[in-house]
Amino acid sequence: GENVEQHPSTLSVQEGDSAVIKCTYSDSASNYFPWYKQELGKRPQLIIDIRSNVGEKKDQRIAVTLNKTAKHFSLHITETQPEDSAVYFCAASKGGSYIPTFGRGTSLIVHP
Amino acid sequence: DAGVTQSPTHLIKTRGQQVTLRCSPKSGHDTVSWYQQALGQGPQFIFQYYEEEERQRGNFPDRFSGHQFPNYSSELNVNALLLGDSALYLCASSFASGDTDTQYFGPGTRLTVL
To answer: For A42, which of B45, B102, B107 is closest by C-beta distance?
Structure first.
């Protein structure tokens, strides 16, 4: 089955810095890669996603890049703010049935 | 537009007991997936229901079972509870016939087994 590795497990940055979280996947058939943000005690919320026919996608301060050949994808957050502090999960799945495999999460801490 | 809802919010049970968790999908969604999220871990897929049938199942024992009703709502049942079943149980809904695989999560049910 699919295996998703996520790094780092913890990321501490100063407000205004950029943050990068990286994930690798094992199944070359995976074609959908969402990112979720989960604040303490709350539900995971989809913040951005990318499909295998696209190399990069941006939404304001958030961007995701995908390298299908290397089977890795990354989340980039620019101009970080304290409210960006949360656990971020990447996931990978094959289209259709959508059974995602999640990474173990990255705890992002943004210091004011 | 109502999002995904789950009940109850919290639940405390003892070993050996049985529990039922409930989920109502986002309006317009017809597929419900259940996940177990242990502390400090990512969500682990339990199973997915579509058209009142279990369509996919993750690596969970038969103690975990579910049901989907004609209105697309769903239940997760866990029998013979173990201490290791303590976790946040998340429900996520999606639209099977759409061109998107996007899932939306509910707030979860925090299950504690003593």
So the answer is: B107
- Look-up: residue for tokens 């504690």? B112
Strands (DSSP E) contained in chain B are 5-7, 10-13, 19-24, 31-37, 44-50, 53-57, 64-68, 74-78, 87-94, 104-105, 109-113
Both tokens of residue B85? 């079943």
In chain A, whose CA is at the least distance from the CA of B54? A97
B43 vs A32, A44, A97: nearest CB: A44
Nearest-CA neighbor of B29 among B98, B106, B99?
A: B98
Q: Tokens at residue A23, please?
A: 């994930």
pLDDT tens digits along A70-108? 999 999 999 999 999 999 999 998 866 668 899 999 999
Nearest to A46 among B102, B106, B107 (CB): B102
Give the three-class secondary structure for A83. Answer: helix
Q: What SS3 state is found at B85?
A: helix
Q: Which residues of B touch A102 (CB under 8 A)?
A: 42-44
Phi, psi of B38 (to 5 degrees): -75, 160
pLDDT score of A31 more than 60: yes
| Residue A41: per-residue pLDDT | 84
